[in-house]
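Q: Give me a protein?
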Amino acid sequence: MKDDQQAKEFLRTINGETRRLTQLINNILDFSKIEAGRKEYRFVSSDVAEVVEVVLRTYEYQLREGGFDLSTRIDHGLPMVSIDPEAISQAVVNLLNNATKYSDDIKKIEVAVWARDTDIAIEVADHGIGIPRSDQQKIFEKFYRVSTALVHNTKGSGLGLALVMHIIEGHGGQVLVDSEPGRGSRFTILIPIVKTETAPKKAGVEIRGYPVEEGSHH
């Protein structure tokens, strides 16, 4: 019995490291394409709710294995939007990875999808360590990691959120951040429902209702 339990624990560790390394490689490859100007998005009319549900079904085992409680509020019958489903899926996975890594003792994650004015919103929230306000403008920078002991003791590349920003920027959308240390973080992706003839606005980071253009802190 003890050997079986130990074997299962080893298998969980191997599976977790395999997923982590696969995601890291995917992020690095995508970021290399972005920086070389070779990243192309394949836009098709899509149901965002369905895209997110597929991600959650794929991610379900990892959440269950980690002891997480997942609650969802996904509206259906939303307007179809022009997106790259694979890229949006990757953005959602990166937010889920971020939530699981920094949830600390309260292993509860909430995911929601709904229509908000002229956008479709995708929200991923955790009840973990949170992000200091002074860091909230910087977390979408490549390789940036919040300077707390718990963050530095957690494995991460500093590419996940940066890639989320680039993906949503490529869709003409926004990323909203609502977070407090010790109370968790809430990330909301906004994807425009209607594409206009004008160039899409630059994606920004919104902190407690105040949008901040990416790179404005340099």
Strands lie at 44-46, 69-74, 81-83, 108-116, 119-126, 174-180, 184-192, 204-207, 210-213.
